[in-house]
């Protein structure tokens, strides 16, 4: 399947755990919101019957080209070029009002990082781009034209958990003003020299967290997660599953809070003897703690090292009412 060399090289993260969490029905309708090179999609298709269907989404035109090849081979599969914040619209267009499972494997794919021209990697020299959808939006070079030092430091701190965010932001903007910020190597250099000498070696490369933060910013990834994960939960049928893989503690916290808001939606003060806000749970955790890769998986697929997966299930309105302590009738 798929003659793309990058597919052969790409091992999907948490492959078995992701499929086990999502898959409940061979005749079900599923959505893979982050097709990439289709590693997870192909695993799901292998489990579907002739009646089952899989819709994939990706914002990257190169991922779409690979998905279109797969759609030609397999009539149960289709793909749309969109960001997953448009999941609700994509489902409406298909006429799929309720689905059996929705999966997300966030971040960038190996082929995106490996292609220097995309500008995601500090290990390969390339343009300051970092857009997952290179056909729309603004590349990093343009985004840096209109950001203040303070805003940039906040971005690097919030999306990268980078303790030297202020020094790094200053160094990046100084390099820009001197005309010395024209490539990913220049950006890497600015991060490296802004990091105190004693912190430059030993752990991750000093540019790792800043590159991650800038990618999240350029692609508005946090807003995408809010809209996409909420739309996924809304469109699940009772018993339908949600699985979200992330690679960064800030993303994981965001996903946990979005799901938790549906698991425990009650806003009544704790001193109230019973709930009066009328908010009924619509999801339940399949596992309260995030799923992590085993040591064996990390040994085979080092990219999975920092992955965390949140898994939850949609519950029926009757189950939600029962959990909230309502016996029946209207609230
Ligand atoms: C980690 S890769 C997915 C790999 C995939 N599970 C596989 O096994 O090949 C993430 C993919 O999601 C896409 N992506 C990330 N954020 C997206 C968003 N907000 N909307 C649509 N696609 C997105 C990226 O373009 C990339 O192709």
From TrEMBL:
It comes from the Bacteria. It is found in: Cytoplasm. InterPro entries: RsmH, SAM-dep_MeTrfase_MraW_recog, SAM-dependent_MTases_sf. It catalyses: cytidine(1402) in 16S rRNA + S-adenosyl-L-methionine = N(4)-methylcytidine(1402) in 16S rRNA + S-adenosyl-L-homocysteine + H(+). GO terms for biological process: rRNA base methylation. S-adenosyl-L-methionine binds at residues 38-40, 58, 84, 105, 112. Its EC number is 2.1.1.199. One of its GO terms (cellular component) is cytoplasm. Belongs to the methyltransferase superfamily. RsmH family. Specifically methylates the N4 position of cytidine in position 1402 (C1402) of 16S rRNA. This is Ribosomal RNA small subunit methyltransferase H.
């Amino acid at each position: 399947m798929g003659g793309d060399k990058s597919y052969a090289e790409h091992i999907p993260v948490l492959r078995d755990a992701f499929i086990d969490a999502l898959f409940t029905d061979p005749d079900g309708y599923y959505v893979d919101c982050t097709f990439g090179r289709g590693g997870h999609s192909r695993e799901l298709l292998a489990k579907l019957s002739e009646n089952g269907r899989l819709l994939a989404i990706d914002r990257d035109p190169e991922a779409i080209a690979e998905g279109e090849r797969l759609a030609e081979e397999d009539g149960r599969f289709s793909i749309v070029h969109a960001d997953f914040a448009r999941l609700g619209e994509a489902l409406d267009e298909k006429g799929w009002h309720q689905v059996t499972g929705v999966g997300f494997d966030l971040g960038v794919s190996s082929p995106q990082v490996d292609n220097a021209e995309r500008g995601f990697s500090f290990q390969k020299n390339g343009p300051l781009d970092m857009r997952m959808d290179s056909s729309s939006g603004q590349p990093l070079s343009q985004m840096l034209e209109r950001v203040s030092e303070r805003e940039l430091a906040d971005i690097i701190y919030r999306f990268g958990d980078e303790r030297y965010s202020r020094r790094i932001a200053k160094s990046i903007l100084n390099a820009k003003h001197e005309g010395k910020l024209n490539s990913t190597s220049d950006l890497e250099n600015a991060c490296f020299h802004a990091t105190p000498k004693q912190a430059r070696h030993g752990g991750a490369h000093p540019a790792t967290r800043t590159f991650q933060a800038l990618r999240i910013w350029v692609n508005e990834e946090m807003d995408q997660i809010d809209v996409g994960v909420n739309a996924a939960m809304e469109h699940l049928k009772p018993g339908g599953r949600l699985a979200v893989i992330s690679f960064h503690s800030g993303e994981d916290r965001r996903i946990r809070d979005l799901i938790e808001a549906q698991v425990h939606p009650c806003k009544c003060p704790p001193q109230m003897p019973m709930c009066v806000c009328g908010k009924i749970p619509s999801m339940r955790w399949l596992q309260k703690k995030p799923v992590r890769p085993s040591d064996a998986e990390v040994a085979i697929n080092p990219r999975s090292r920092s992955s965390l997966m949140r898994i939850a299930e949609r519950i029926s309105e009757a189950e939600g009412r029962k959990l909230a302590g309502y016996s029946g009738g209207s609230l």
